[in-house]
Amino acid sequence: MESVRAERIHRAVFGHAKIVHVLEGAAHIETATGIHELTPGYAMALGAGMWCSGRPDPTVRLWTLYFDESFLRSHMRWVLADTTRVRPGVHPDAWDGSALVLQPGVDILHRIEPLWRQISLVNETAPPEVATTRLISLFSRAVEIALPTLLADDGAVPERFVLPVRGRLAQPPIARPVRRSVVLLRSRMTEPWTVGRLAAEVAVSRAHLTRVFTQQVGVAPMRFLIETRLTEFTRLIEETDLPIADASRQVGWNDARVAAVWFRKRFGITPTQYRRHPHPSCTGAMPCESCRGVCALTPVLEPVTRAVSRDSRRDAHIRRLS
Questions:
Q1: 201-to-64, 174, 187 alpha-carbon distances in Å
Q2: What pLDDT is recorded for position 226?
Q3: Region 21-48: what's the mean pLDDT?
Q4: Which residues pair with 24 in a beta bridge?
Q5: Residue 27 counted as domain residue
Q6: Cβ atoms of residues 66 and 312 within 8 Å
Q7: Same domain for 226 and 137?
Q8: What is the pLDDT, as a whole number, of residue 319?
Q9: Do 65 and 118 fall into the same domain?
Q10: Contact 315, 309 (CB under 8 A)
Q11: Do the domain assignments include residue 309?
Q12: Residue closest to 5 by CA, chosen among 169, 270, 240, 261
């Protein structure tokens, strides 16, 4: 899940393992082992049941992925089978779940970001079997890109294997029209964009922009705009006291019902419920034992059937700490 934060992130403990990637800005993440400064190009893994809090400096754009920890450890054991080639502390048998900070670098994270974006959307329409297979496939591709970060210097991936011979992962750096389009959609998200208007702004054809943008960003231009608006709308709901209708208009949705529909698609609850319980107390039991059946998430809780989760509110059961 992509997020942009400008206010302190309260301390919470998650029922799933998570990996945080910082793309822009910076944040100080506090865990049981200390305070970790994450700047662009840094990543941090944290095991299930481990608390963390954060302070953006002054803002941060990041991706957070939530995993069933048994799946994550099992998958990485297969990938990192030769422990002698792995960086100290990275192999799942050497990791105790405490904060593990790595520096893949901005280039690697930018190459992985389209895969995270596809992961965040894959469960919308696909049957669960197809969705799970797709999620595992996308995650495996991301791990392949990140391999140089995981291996010791003397076990580095040979240069000819860093990129596969075929496929999207072998694509060149982001094309200028795509890069410009991303900047326009983020900086002017309130405007009534169409693909035609965006293509005219960057001086390419609609067909070419759609094809290259989808290849290099992971989604089509107008879906990227929706996700950008939704990320900022979520920040406004959590960090400000703006009425929901005003927050909706501030990101380019004049009808708050449109914002509510997309918000429910991402989080499974309404913006009002989210604002009331930004860090709900849920154990996953049905009925929920912690909140005695009154938690806003009770109607939408479902068994964890996916190995890789895109949603911290529905699948990573959170317990806010005092």
A1: 32, 17, 14
A2: 94
A3: 94
A4: 61
A5: yes
A6: yes
A7: no
A8: 34
A9: yes
A10: yes
A11: no
A12: 240
Out of 176-190, 226-240, 296-310, which region has the weakest mean confidence (pLDDT)? 296-310
User: What percent helix, strand, coil does the chain show, rounded to 5?
Assistant: 45, 20, 35
Looking at the structure, tell me whether residues 110 and 59 fall in a common domain: yes
Predicted pLDDT at 124 = 61
The mean per-residue pLDDT over the stretch 141-162 comes to 73
Check pLDDT > 70 for residue 131. Answer: yes
Instruction: Evaluate the CA torsion angle 152, 158, 164, 170 in order and state its sign.
Output: positive
The total number of residues written for the chain in this structure? 322
The pLDDT > 70 percentage for the chain reads 79
Q: What angle do CA 88, 90, 91 make, to 5 degrees?
A: 100
Residue 107 inside a domain? The answer is yes
Q: Please state the rounded mean pLDDT for residues 206-225.
A: 93
Tell me the Ramachandran region of residue 302: left when phi exceeds 0, alpha when psi lies from -120 to 50, beta otherwise: beta
Q: What are phi and psi of 86, to 5 degrees?
A: -100, 145
**Ramachandran class of 294: left when φ > 0, alpha when ψ lies in -120 to 50, beta otherwise:** alpha
Q: What is the distance between the alpha carbons of residues 27 and 59, in angstroms, rounded to a whole number?
A: 7
Q: What percent of the chain has pLDDT over 90?
A: 59
Are 81 and 128 contained in the same domain? yes
How many domains does the chain contain in total? 2
| DSSP E strands, the chain | 2-5, 9-14, 17-31, 34-38, 43-46, 51-67, 100-102, 308-309, 318-320
The closest alpha carbon to 279, from 319, 316, 311, 315, belongs to 319
The closest of 96, 95, 209, 204 to 150, measured between CA atoms, is 95
Contact between 142 and 308 under an 8 Å Cβ cutoff? The reply is no
CB atoms within 10 A of CB 308: 23
Does residue 12 lie within any of the structural domains? yes
Assign 175 a pLDDT band (cuts: 50, 70, 90). Answer: confident
Domain that holds residue 259: 176-276
Number of neighbouring beta carbons within 10 Å of residue 255:
11
> What tokens does 166 get?
């075929």
> Using alpha carbons only, how large is the chain's radius of gyration in Å?
20
